[in-house]
Amino acid sequence: MKIIFWIIFIITGLSGLMTVLTKDLFRSAIYLGITLLGSGLLYLFLGYDFIGWTQILVYVGGIVLLMIFTIMLARESVMRPLIITIRNPFISGLFALLLFLLLMLVAKPLILVPKGLDKDYTFLPSIIFKSKYVLSFEVLSVLLLIAFIGAILIARKD
Amino acid sequence: MELKSLFFLSIFLFSLGLYGVLSRRNAMGILIALELIFNSANLNFGIFSKIHANPSGVMTILFGIGITAAEIVLGFAIVILLFRLRKTSNADEVHILRG
Fold first, then answer.
1. d(Cα A120, Cα A46) in Å, to the nearest integer?
2. CATH class given for the domain over A1-88
3. Contact at 8 Å (CB) between A37 and A3?
4. Percent of chain B surpassing pLDDT 90
5. What is the DSSP letter of A75?
6. What span, in angstroms and rounded, lies between the C-alpha atoms of A92 and A107?
7. Phi first, then psi: what are they for B26, rounded to 5°?
């Protein structure tokens, strides 16, 4: 089990790296899908079954598919892959590296130990529908509906 | 130990996302890099929800996933519209909104 965790961990990190380093946008979206799939599987190792599968379903099944469709629609030629240019790689790399080192400096001395008993979140839907989160969940669904209608209106050819 | 390494992974993904947002010129590339940042934030919520044994963090992940979906859908609709109007999807070459 430990070995599987580390394999998924390393694959997630490496594909995250490839997401920003590759110049072909299509491959970048595929690597992003692998990263999101890996993080969804890591949620399973934390014990969040519902969140993990939701992540895989929504992100990998929905959002990455949408990205791939958009990338295939918005390019000049069908045969040519969409190669993108990179602006100021050294300055932005320096900024990202500085932020990484700063956050690692802060995170290094932290002791992260689960407090108390581990709760079981397998039945998270029952937590949602029995608790104070019901109204915010409804508002979220209305927000999604509005966003989808707005996206159709924006992208429609008229 | 696993929690700490996951925390480091989320920091790593956040820095990568920052690099992508700063260095990409294409609007779709920026949105893809933005996804990495949201994903690392969600991972952090999960880790700290585990540490404090509090289900609010898990609920925040759920809401974060939904809001990210809405944001990405709108962003890509704008990219498609932009491509139809300007035949480009570079974020630099868009001066329509400049006053």
1. 10
2. mainly alpha
3. no
4. 39
5. S
6. 22
7. -75, 140
CA distance A37 to A56: 6
Q: Which tokens belong to B57?
A: 């963090």
Q: How far is A84 from chain B (nearest CA, A)?
A: 6
The domain segmentation of chain A, as residue ranges, is 1-88, 123-158
Stated pTM of the model: 0.88
**A127 vs A134: CA distance, rounded Å:** 9
Which candidate from B15, B20, B58 shows the least CB-CB separation from A124?
B58
CA dihedral (A56, A31, B63, A97) in degrees, to 10, reads: 140
Element (H, E) at A138: helix A134-155
* Per CATH, domain B2-86 is 1.25.40.10: no
Consecutive H or E run containing A59: none
pLDDT per residue as tens digits for the range A25-83: 889 999 999 999 999 999 988 888 888 998 999 888 889 998 888 888 877 666 666 67
Q: Is residue B96 less than 8 Å (CB to CB) from chain A?
A: no
* CB of A15 less than 8 A from some CB of B: no
CA atoms within 13 A on the CB side of A36: 31
The domain limits of chain B are 2-86
Contacts of residue B38, Cβ cutoff 8 Å, sequence gap at least 6: B64, B68
